[in-house]
Amino acid sequence: MSIVPKETIEVTAQSIGINNLSPDAALALAPDVEYRLREIMQEAIKCMRHSKRNLLTTEDVDSALRLRNVEPIYGFASGSGDPLRFRRALGHRDLFYVDDKDVDFKDVIEAPLPKAPLDCSVVCHWLAIEGVQPAIPENAPVEVIRAPSETKLPEQKEDGLPVDIRLPVKHVLSRELQLYFDKITELVVSRSDSVLFKEALASLATDSGLHPLVPYFTCFIADEVSHGLSNFPLLFALMRLVWSLLQNPHIHIEPYLHQLMPSVVTCLVAKRLGNRLADNHWELRDFTATVVASICKRFSHVYNNLQTRLTKTLLHAFLDPKRAITQHYGAIQGLAALGPNVVRLLVVPNLETYLRLLEPEMLLEKQKNEMKRHEAWRVYGALLSAAGQSIYDRLKMFPSMPSPPASTVWKTNFRIIHSCSANKRRTPADLLEEQPPAEKIGNDGALVPLSNNSSDMETDKDPAALGDSSAGRSSPKDIRESHSERRQKRDQLEKRILRTPALLNQAWKDDLDSGRLLLLLFELFGESIFPFIPSPEMAFFL
Amino acid sequence: MDEEDIEKAVMTYLKKKGFKQTELAFQEEQQRQHPKTALNSTNSHVDPEIACQILSFSSELENNPAQYHEGYGKLRSWAYSSLDLYKHELLRVLYPVFVHCFMDLIAKGHIQEARTLFNSFREDHEMMHARDLQKLEGVLSPSHLEEMEFAHSLRQSKFNIKICQYSYDLLLQYLHKTQSVVMLGLINEHINFQVSPGQPTSISDDAEVVTFMGSGQDATNLINQKEIHWGLLEDSLEERLEKAGALVPDSAKVDGEAREGEVEENKKRPYEGGKQGASLKKSKKDKVATATGKASRVETSTVSVAPRVKPELTLPSIPAEVEHSILEDLRNRVQLSSAALPSISFYTFINTHNGLNCASISQDGSLVAGGFSDSSLKVWDMAKLGQQTGYATSQIVEDSYPSDSLLGANSGRKSYTLFQGHSGPVYSATFSPFGDYILSSSSDSTIRLWSTNLNTNLVCYKGHNYPVWDVQFSPVGHYFASSSHDRTARIWSMDRMQPLRIMAGHLSDVDCLQWHVNCNYIATGSSDKTVRLWDVQSGECVRIFIGHRSMILSLAMSPDGRYMASGDEDGTVMMWELASGRCISPLVGHTSCVWTLAFSCEGSLLASGSADCTVKLWDVTASTKLLKTEDNKTGSINRLRSLKTLPTKSTPVYSLQFSRRNLLFAAGVLSKNT
């Protein structure tokens, strides 16, 4: 009848020494015990509410007992790590006891003092500013609002209230994709040399449906690059990952480029990549340069300032003499990868001054550190290759022409000089043209030993490194450049003269520039530039 | 059939029941009174059937407790199978009948039957009356009925049920037809029908139709008819500012006068007794002020200005510089509305180890007090706290930073001032309006007054016999009110050891209280689910607000003195109009205890803080306007609009306080397990 059975009463009676409690008394007491219990609980709940809690604690029960002038029950503290539990006595279905462990005094005394609990304090933050919750860590994240807001939305609309909670975009990542991501990242970090990684890269480059992972990949790449600059294999693996992502036609990587670019550029122009001598960071830089170039090619129409910003960064690295030589190398490679035009416009004008700086580094007698010297030669090679590519591209533009009558050329030449008086470059260029032999001799005198020296060094040290230049290295030739240049110019003019005057103007300038460029490059690099000059032009040249 | 027959019937009844002692006593008495009865017998024309009725009635009742079960079961199935249109009205009858059946059975000692009845039908009422059922479940003997205040009040009073004419007829027909005397008796005894002609009311009004009257409906009505003056105090600072703002050229003059008046007052203060003082002086000043600014005032105050009332208490004077700063605050007050929501600064208590019982914020938000279950009261100076965190970055500066708190020496690098003195959990703390005193109430049944300037205990007020749940300073300071487990609320003044008034009347603990803005009334919320309004001067109860379904936890008074908001354990907030004593609208939205409520300074917004870790902002003006246009129709339609819900990061909101400039301060404890 009562939830307290009379047996409980009897047991309790026995425990306090009343052995002859009549069953009737127990029966009568049981309901009263239940009532008193409920009464105590009611008071305890009041105490709980006034302590502004929703969880009833033993303290509440104690204070409720005190309210009723009853001695509180000692020994039951809530909140301690090990709550007291009731155990069922063996062999009895309904006999329970409190599992009270014996505690050895020695253990208690020897136990180290627990840490003092942190003292209470108050921190202040803005819950709302003019009714809008600022997105600060102290406030509940917006996601928490989302769930109820979905249900409340119609209700609020009924009231005609402006709903200013913008629902965040749900970004659900399927379990499969998560596994895929975990697997790929694991491969990148730990086993980038395995066959599996190659497979993974292939998958990344081709699989559709990877788009949801792109933000995670970009984050991952940025994180790993910033933390793992000394881990060469990791960096290389990451760049290959970037390359694969770029290759994938199903991924729209544009929105994440701004996150991706800093890491990529870092891999290009960082001072140190990898921490061991064996790490072939040159290769990484070359590879990254191609990545950068491909990004520029693909997205320069979307982001107008992408290439400008990139070239600015690279040029800055290139022109800063304080930067390490490795950084210069990266910058040159990056610029070279962006195309011959970039090289012609940005690298070549600075070539002379730069080589002057580089020269002492390359000479055996001036730079004793072999490593440094090697690096300098590397940069020299890169510069040569870049400049060569640029001039090759330049010359390639001009198809070989039948030589026109000289008189026309001179006429046009004359006319143009007059028509475009604004062209100030012409004058020095012409002057230059007039006096090539003398200069040539001077240059030859300066450069020939140097180039000899260089070729010796290259063959000694690292023949493969400058493969492109050494392959085409040929015996020194006598150069009648002024002649050939004039011939070329004449050809060009001959051809363009038939077109509109504006075009002609431009063409003349271009032509003149390329002539100058070739001259300049020859002055700087000597004959090593020749392999880059296509054969018909070379013929003219010669 | 005459009297003798009745006596015979009684005799047979007694014999039948085996009441031998009573039988003997009855016989004796009969013989003694016989001549008297014989005389009377001629006048009394007793219905002969009465005896039979009594006989059958009583025998049936006594012999057959199962009748209750059966009768109730029949009534229930009849109600459930009645016409759909009238069904919900008829179902309302079931709960009172059920409760009284149960209590009757208990009272007659049929505990077992009472249990079975209770358990078989409790499901029906679980949804609406879960808490009551929980309480009743524990009643297991007649003595409990007497002891338990809830059961006692149920027995004493009547349920009030609104019902339409036809439903009422249906019910009567049924009761007559089935001859279920028990049910009829119960319904007659305990239910008061308010029969209304016409169609039955809609189901949605359920909350208001079945009301349980604590002391009988008539009494409540009587109390609620008393006149109350809910207007603002004459010559409040707000009013003065309004005037000053209205006549810009004269403002300096008025201000100057005001200050002169203050100075004069302060001078006179020591000589004249407490009685005259402020009110007289101020009313004089008021006259001067109104004379200068009457014309403009009429213009500015076309928007229904609350009526002004004279204070019934002697009000303390406000120091000139304090008054000045208040006026400055009022001038810089941000106007809040449904379009312009307040900024909320949140004070989060961390590392409290579940020990914080209450939090309180001073009017300007610079001081925060926390009452702890380890009997301590801790006060943080937020201005200083900011400095110290700034110093924390540079160690050297912090070390050389002189701690100017009195307890600095022993409290070391603590960021707070520790007040120790209570011998039980501190349940409430309140700042005086100017932040120079703190009152705290504790489970040790005392209230202590602390000075924030001296960092020490000034007075210990002893008067309550049980834990003091709540203490609140009056809006003007000096006076304060306390509420306790001993079912009373008391009014005190700072300079007296004994309470000035004791308000008794609640049927259970008085859990919270709030002063009316004009200091003439206090409102108290209780575990008996009612809110009462008391006149401070007379100590009488002037309003009873009935409608909450559970314990009242928080109260707030609107700054214009017209409305009151109350929040309960279930998360319901109710808005009351003081003059009529009626509920304007229940605000539903919170899912757990509403710990705190606060009106913005111009009364356009209500903020509520709850255990469900949210602060909600409600639009007050919209709902009150609605009320006017709809001309006091049923309250449930015009709900207060919820403007905004601001969730905290698992921090139940313990306290809310609008500063005079309408910045909202909130405090709560970061709790990981909720």
TrEMBL record, chain A:
Chief site of localization: nucleus
SUPFAM superfamilies noted in UniProt: ARM repeat, Histone-fold
Keywords, ordered alphabetically: Activator, Nucleus, Transcription, Transcription regulation
This protein's record includes keyword Transcription: yes
Subcellular location: Nucleus
One GO term describing the cellular component: SLIK (SAGA-like) complex
The organism's place on the tree of life at top rank: Eukaryota
Disordered: region residues: 427-493
Compositionally skewed regions (Basic and acidic residues) per UniProt: 475-493
Gene Ontology BP annotations: RNA polymerase II preinitiation complex assembly
SMART domains per record: TAF
Domain TATA box binding protein associated factor (TAF) histone-like fold: 2-68
A GO MF label: RNA polymerase II general transcription initiation factor activity
Listed Pfam families: TAF, TAF6_C
Family: Belongs to the TAF6 family.
Name of protein: Transcription initiation factor TFIID subunit 6-like isoform X2
Organism: Coffea arabica (Arabian coffee)
TrEMBL record, chain B:
Keyword field: Nucleus, Repeat, Transcription, Transcription regulation, WD repeat
One protein family per Pfam: TFIID_NTD2
Organism domain of life: Eukaryota
Localisation per UniProt entry: Nucleus
WD repeats: 349-382, 419-451, 461-502, 503-544, 545-586, 587-628
SMART domains in the record: WD40
This protein's GO CC annotations: transcription factor TFIID complex
Residue ranges constituting the TFIID subunit TAF5 NTD2 domain according to the UniProt record: 62-191
GO biological-process terms attached to the record: transcription initiation at RNA polymerase II promoter
Molecular function per GO: RNA polymerase II general transcription initiation factor activity
Originating species: Coffea arabica (Arabian coffee)
CDD domains referenced in this protein's UniProt entry, alphabetically: TAF5_NTD2, WD40
Ranges for region Disordered: 249-295
Protein name: Transcription initiation factor TFIID subunit 5-like isoform X1
Gene that specifies this protein: LOC113708814
Compositionally skewed regions (Basic and acidic residues) per UniProt: 252-272
Membership in a protein family: Belongs to the WD repeat TAF5 family.
